[in-house]
Amino acid sequence: MKYLCPLFILLFTPSLYTQEQGMASYYGPGFHGKKTASGEIFNQDDFTAAHRSLSFGSQVEVTNLTNGKTVLVKINDRGPFVTGRIIDLSVAAARSIGIDAALGVAKVSLKVISGVRVPEPQEGQTYLQVGAFRTEANAKQSAAKLAGWGYDPKIRLGDLYRVYLGPLEESVSDTTAKDLALRGIQAQKRSTPPPGYE
User: Fold this and answer.
1) How much is the pTM?
2) How do beta strands 85-90 and 70-77 pair?
3) Domain spanning 126-190 has what CATH number?
């Protein structure tokens, strides 16, 4: 039996089963030197990234599926807050795997080397629309602020970029709305997500 233990550990190592594919984007100059959701100061020249649900400190191998280039990054921020994207890379990390600066995005695969996934919010009945913006940049700035306060914002694109929280339990929704009001934000309670698409 003792000879089976190393095999058991190997089979259940996160790097062998926690994988994801989707679009990667990158962020840099506008956030350089600012505090991330983890509390660390963002440095666009470090090999770091933002992910919606992986724990801070997670080590993730990112592979550009167009050219096969790979980089190892540390998760220290929350995001991306744009539908269809799975990770936001620092400028240095994006450059190292050849993401075209003009396009700004690339299809990638993620392999978690270490770390755990934070549980996603459960289905509920209440949503809070926090803001509606004409530009993606302003929506991302709003979402980043919410993430810095410990929330899990999302963005829907329709006629506007709408930043929202949820689904939330009714009691959590009320408490959150009061907290946001104290911070100068009047959230709109909804029974469905804001109009637009994920």
Assistant:
1) 0.55
2) unpaired
3) 3.30.70.1070
Best CA proximity match to 65, nearest among 106, 26, 96: 106
Q: What is the pLDDT of residues 60-85, one digit of tens each?
A: 999 999 999 999 999 998 888 888 89
pLDDT along the chain (198 residues), means of 10: 39 50 89 86 93 86 95 91 90 94 91 68 73 90 92 82 88 91 92 65
Please work out, in degrees rounded to the nearest 5, the angle formed at the alpha carbon of residue 12 by the alpha carbons of 6 and 10: 30
What gap in Å lies between CA 95 and CA 72, rounded to an integer?
13
Name every residue whose Cβ is closer than 8 Å to that of residue 6 and which is 6 or more positions away in sequence.
Answer: none
Superfamily of domain 12-114: RlpA-like domain (2.40.40.10)
Dihedral sign for Cα atoms in the order 169, 170, 174, 175:
negative
Q: Which amino acid is at 104?
A: G
Cβ atoms of residues 42 and 48 within 8 Å: yes
**Radius of gyration in angstroms for the set of CA atoms belonging to the chain, rounded to a whole number:** 18
Bond from prior residue into 195 cis (ω within 30 degrees of 0): no
